[in-house]
Amino acid sequence: MADLRVEELSATTIVGVNTLSLKPGQERFVTPESYAIAATVVDPATSWQRVILDGDEVVGFVSAGFDADAPHEHFRSVLWRINVDADDQGRGVGRYAVDQLIDEARARGFDHVNVIYEAGEGGPDAFFQRVGFTPVDETEYGEVVAQIKL
Q1: CATH number, domain at 26?
Q2: Rounded CA gap, 138 and 91, in Å?
Q3: In this predicted model, what pLDDT tens digit does every residue of 71-111 receive, in sequence order?
Q4: What is the distance between the alpha carbons of residues 46 and 142, in angstroms, rounded to a whole number?
């Protein structure tokens, strides 16, 4: 894992992103990668999509949005999704991805990053708390809004 690096999503890496595997039960918490990738087409100025590589192998994907003018505060600096291949979970890939996201948020002048997720057995709650997110709110649909202060 000493060879982790982050790169912008590209034609070279998109196939690897689309083939990331999940552990059993995780699929109910994850929308297809194509939804996240489509966000770049919608607003490339505010979308931040990166792949995490270990050597030349795609082991993770992170998508975020940075829009200081977003009408809802939760969406101004937000982690939209993070996927780590099932075989690479537990090796620090997710933490590395969040660290890269935090660096980007700071560089853009933000003082926090939000994440919105569905809680539940096998869900991402424990991961987000381990890397420093703290629940701060709940959406009208019952999703958790958590935040990490920078």
Answers
A1: 3.40.630.30
A2: 30
A3: 999 999 999 989 899 999 999 999 999 999 999 999 999 99
A4: 26
